[in-house]
Amino acid sequence: MTDNHMHLFLDTANIEHIRRAAKLGIVSGITTNPSLVAKEKCANYRDFIQEICTIIDGPISAEVLSQDATAIIEEARDIASWASNIVVKVPITDQGIEATSQLSREGIKVNLTLCFSVNQALLGALSGAAYVSPFVGRLDDIGENGMQLVADIVEIYKIYNFPTQVIAASIRHPMHCVAAAKAGAHVATIPYKILMQMFEHPLTTIGIARFLKDFSELKIQGDKR
């Protein structure tokens, strides 16, 4: 994705939610992690991710479980072979950065996850990562400003024309999406519940009910004639 508008990814491994989001036509990628996959109790991880890749044709992030660079590289190569639209999710550690440097040279796209500082994001861009995912909500939880981190990373990437894209992650409520858009994030990855909340406004609900009521009364009057 090289266009200049913000994208929405769905942060889930729930197949039903992914299918529903695909029908809406507004979600262009999926991010998963071991915790989300574990909730779905999938029998075969590879088959599970491959099924997701057939539903959404955009970037699908699947995370490695290995911790040392050599093992991360080996596991990432395997995961990347599952489908053409897979992005391998790797934690930002020294081992993860080392692995990403090698993987990016091989043309394997990496989403560096669990980013909590500008320094980590800078190292991620220098390693050639396709995406870096700052975790907004988790920073907010400990009294820091998660969205300011997103804004700072976006600013630095623009200064140096880094191609690495910023995914605002750990989104907790719809206003986080607004803030991510204002901060210039390339992507906000959101839970299904938050996606559905973005549609909601009480005045929309009231307006629809009023239109239906008015039309019903008009129909009744017409029938009386």
Describe it for me?
With 225 residues, the protein is an alpha/beta fold. It has a single domain, classed as Alpha-Beta Barrel (TIM Barrel), CATH 3.20.20.70. Helix content is 54%, strand content 16%. It is built from 11 helices and 8 strands. It has an 8-stranded parallel barrel, surrounded by 7 helices. Helix 6 (118-126) links the parallel strand 5 and strand 6 (131-134). Helix 8 runs parallel beside helix 9. The longest helix has 23 residues, at 202-224. It starts with 6 loop residues before the first strand and ends with a helix.
In short:
The chain contains eleven helices and eight strands. By secondary structure, it is α/β, with parallel strands linked by helices. It has a single domain, classed as Aldolase class I (TIM Barrel, Alpha-Beta Barrel).
Strand-helix topology:
Elements: E1 7-11, H1 15-24, E2 29-31, H2 34-40, H3 45-55, E3 60-63, H4 69-80, E4 86-91, H5 94-105, E5 110-115, H6 118-126, E6 131-134, H7 136-141, H8 146-160, E7 165-168, H9 174-183, E8 187-190, H10 192-198, H11 202-224
Parallel strand pairs: 1-2, 1-8, 2-3, 3-4, 4-5, 5-6, 6-7, 7-8
Helix pairs in contact: 4-5, 6-8, 8-9
